[in-house]
Amino acid sequence: MPILEQMDFQETCVVWEYTSNKNKYGEYIYSSPREIKCRWEYKTEERFDLKQVREDNYVAYDVRVYSSVIIPQRSILRYGLLADVDIEGLVEVVMDQRVPDIKSRFKRYRYFCMKHTKKLPITS
Asked: Does domain 4-123 sit in CATH 2.60.120?
């Protein structure tokens, strides 16, 4: 039985982690896709961007993902299994937050994602 803080991670998503490398065409290169356990919530909301990653101060996002795995910003996620990957349903991480438990023993992360309208990520 999983620990209480991770019992709600019953869903699986595929993640392509962002690397700062680019190919000769200027496109970002991502790590190879892998599956992680998470909780996936479809929720459209607008939040204030404290880290100033984007040019404007507010970020609109479409999906919230909770996980115990650290995922860098600009990484690409997709709900489902690795075997079912296609271009539909891709989202990009635009903001992240660390969410501690009451005693701050376990770490979990909340990722705010917006729809990724480009093609599948280029992997190394």
From this structure: no
